[in-house]
Structure formats: C-alpha cells, structure tokens
C-alpha cells in the first residue's frame, strides 16, 4: 500500500524557493546587524584599492612603460597618502566622549552632563525633587568624567564617586559626600527629596564646574 506524502511525514520537507524568493531571503539575512557590522569600512576599501594598484603598477609590463624610478616614486607618494589617511581617519582619536560610558551609577545612561542638568532643571520645575536630585548627581559624575577627572567602574556607587571626586577637589569633599547621601536617599531609600536638597546638590555641581582641580604635580592640568 502506498501512503500519501503527508502520511509518510514528508509534508515537513521545506519548499525550495524560486529565484526571487531566494534573493529576498538573502537580502533579509544580509540586512541583519551582524552582517552590516562586518562590512568593510571606507579605510578598508581604500587600502584594498591601494594594494591592487601597487600590484598592477609593479607588474613587468607597467614597470617597463614607466621606468623603475618613476614606479618607485609613485609608490612612495601613494604610500605616504595612505598613511596620512590612516592617521587622520583610521586611528581612534581622543575626544570628550572617550571616557563616557553607557553605565552610570547602576543604570544605562550615556547622556552628557549638559543634558542631565537640563533634565534635572525640568524635573525641579515640575517639583519632582527625587528625579531632579538623581539627575543632578548624575550630571556631577558625568561632568567629572568629561573633564577626565573621574573614571568610575560600571558598578561604582555614589559614595565611591564622591570619594574619587574629592581627590581633585579636596575642599568639596564634604559637599560631595552630602550630595551622594542625597542621591542614595531618594534613589534607594525612596525618600521624596526637597527643593532645598536639590539646590544643595545643584550648587555643588556649579562650584565644581568653576573650580580648577588640584592634580598631582606630575600630571598636567587639562580641565
């Protein structure tokens, strides 16, 4: 007895797509982030083109047409141009965002200090003092990171940051500690905060912005 295909379990055999279907499947697969991230950069493409050009340039026929010295000079000029491109665009450059991480005080937050201050002021305007205090203390930490005065670990606490920040600003050690306590109170203990407490944290932030840090004599003052 011959059983139908479905009865023999062959209904689960996948259908083979036609040409258009296969192309669409391939396009969807190649559009995934992991494939896009693996695409060669402009620098990679230029470097490859340069290598191909040198390979063609120094073949026997081309060398005979140009002369050996002309080919060498052209190669040196092009190599210098490629090095200049790599130095200008291919090498990671130091910037204000270099030390800015995506995790700050136990939460994913990559906003700049100015953005955090603006959000804190908006929360204060709405009398959401807990949010305002949290945002303003984050602004303190982010500002110090942007000035290369602080490089906290991803799990650093508010108290850890206040102690590290007191090193370049010893006169602000007590104020930094109070600001960290205010952050912990509203962030973890559920206290509502107040306008006076927010103003204390904001004033500390403003003073730190205006102060020149006291660094080790061996380290240049850059902030």
From TrEMBL:
Superkingdom to which the source organism belongs: Bacteria
Keyword vocabulary terms for this entry: Membrane, Transmembrane, Transmembrane helix
Domain Protein-glutamine gamma-glutamyltransferase-like C-terminal: 136-204
Pfam (any one): DUF4129
TM regions (residue ranges): 66-89
Protein name: DUF4129 domain-containing protein
């Amino acid at each position: 007895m011959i059983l139908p295909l479905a009865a023999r379990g062959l209904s689960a055999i996948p259908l083979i797509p036609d040409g258009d279907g296969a192309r669409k499947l391939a396009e969807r697969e190649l559009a995934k982030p992991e494939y896009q991230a693996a695409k060669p950069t402009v620098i990679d493409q230029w470097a490859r083109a340069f290598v191909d050009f040198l390979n063609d340039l120094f073949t026997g026929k081309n060398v005979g047409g140009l002369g050996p010295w002309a080919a060498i000079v052209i190669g040196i000029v092009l190599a210098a141009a490629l090095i200049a491109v790599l130095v200008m665009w291919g090498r990671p450059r130091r910037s204000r965002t270099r030390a800015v991480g995506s995790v700050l005080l136990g939460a994913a937050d990559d906003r700049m200090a100015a953005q955090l201050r603006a959000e804190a002021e908006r929360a204060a305007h709405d009398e959401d003092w807990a949010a305002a205090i949290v945002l303003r203390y984050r602004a303190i930490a982010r500002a110090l990171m942007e000035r290369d005065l602080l490089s906290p670990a991803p799990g650093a606490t508010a108290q850890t940051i206040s102690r590290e920040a007191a090193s370049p600003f010893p006169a602000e050690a007590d104020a930094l500690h109070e600001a960290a306590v205010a952050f912990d109170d509203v962030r973890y203990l559920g206290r509502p905060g107040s306008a006076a407490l927010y103003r204390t944290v904001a004033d500390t932030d403003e003073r730190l912005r205006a102060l020149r840090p006291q660094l080790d004599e061996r380290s240049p003052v850059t902030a």
